[in-house]
């Protein structure tokens, strides 16, 4: 039975959205195609009507998640204070505690290096975010904006990843606060 194109496209987007969330929560190897399809309310059977493989889904869902993150950053480019707020929100307990809803960089950097199919999408996302930060963050000196954006984003991603990894909530909060303070005051 053939489904209308709109319904097929909606299902495809639903799969991408749930896959991106689950991959951020559990890693690329931590979630199965069956779990993704179950999260979408679909059976495992139609998966291959949408994707050639799990690796193809991983790559496309990484781009899908990237688009979501870039939209949030685009909204922050309206003012210097909005850019600072973007950093505050990124390096926060709320972001730390919700990897499925957060940035794919902090959630999947360690996994992406082991997934050749994902690396181009991951690289595209990273370069895009660095470019936007370099162009729009209120740098004190503009002559090293790209280098400063790389340093800042590396610190932000690292802070969230480390804050998620430790078993001491006070220390986790301290990590976030240190990086937050370094870039927003």
- Number of DSSP E strands: 0
What portion of residues is helical?
Answer: over 70%
Q: Count the domains.
A: 1
Mind summarizing the main beta sheet?
none
Sum up the overall morphology in one term: globular
**If helices are DSSP runs of H or I spanning 4 or more residues, what is the number of helices?**
10
- Beta-strand share of residues: under 5%
Which CATH-level-2 architecture?
Orthogonal Bundle
CATH class: Mainly Alpha
Mean pLDDT: 93
Could you say what the CATH topology is called? Tetracycline Repressor, domain 2
Straight-line distance between termini: 59 Å
Structural class: mainly alpha
| Low-confidence blocks of residues | none
Q: What is the CA-based Rg, rounded?
A: 18 Å
How do the helices and strands follow one another from N- to C-terminus? HHHHHHHHHH
CATH level-four homologous superfamily name: Tetracycline Repressor, domain 2
